[in-house]
Amino acid sequence: MSRIAHVNGAYVPQSRASVSIDDRGYQFADGVYEVAPVQAGRIIDLKPHLDRLAQSLRGIQIDMPMPLSAITVICRETLARNRVLDGTVYMQISRGVAARDHGFPKTPIKPALVVTAKSMVWPTDAGADTGIAIITTPDTRWGRCDIKATGLLANVLAKQKARDAGAFEAWFVRPDGSISEGASTNAWIVDRDGRLITRPLGPEILPGITRATVLNLAGAAGLDVVERSFTVEELLDAREAFLTSTTAMVRAVIAVDGRPIANRYPGEITRQLRGLCIAHYGSAGEA
Ligand code: PDD
Description:
alpha+beta, D-amino Acid Aminotransferase, Chain A, domain 1, six-stranded antiparallel sheet, globular, binds N-(5'-phosphopyridoxyl)-D-alanine
């Protein structure tokens, strides 16, 4: 079955789906996006994903092309047409088509909306995660990483650097020695006192939806959580480390730049949170 994409109001075979070469998303990466998980036909945490989409659009001064309820209808239709019950739905909105000029077009243009859907198998067994290796790399990104912008060149290069090193992810290190986040994940450690530590929200990190979910789950489970930045030294000294994202959920980090974290096995708290996250995906409504 060929995949179907939604492009500006039309459902078209993905292999033939296209946007203009004058689309500012193509010219300037002048756009934003979202990736939301889908399990058993339900879009998990739909509202926070749509709220963040609206926030990202505000952040780059693009007007909402349509109400969020209409985007939801398009997401559902795209999932249905692709027969995706388990996977992800991708939404991208760019400023639209105009002759190339850095400043916004003087006459208003229509933002371009693309929605695609992809199948994937979600994990069901928290204990099956054997952990992953990461590398660290300087944070060379722009100053508004809280906006989920399509301009991801620094993230792309960091991810490739990780893959070239045989690692799953790269965590960005800021000039002050603190870790901001991963190329496509948020970063966490558990310190020697069992405290869960992750960077507070701010312009240096994406406000991850999985990050928020894990904060809630950890709080409800009575875990000690501190939102503060942490350094590479603290990471290397941590009892546990893990990353979070829509597609990775919670995954244990067991090595950094070739050096082990604790005993190179996923830690107890990481496994607990991964289990809670798997259960959340299995039970969360679309609200
Ligand atoms: N990436 N940080 C960055 C830089 C990200 O790109 C992502 C998500 C996250 C985690 O956010 P969330 O929990 O909302 O997925 C953190 C998505 C999945 C992507 O670009 O494909």
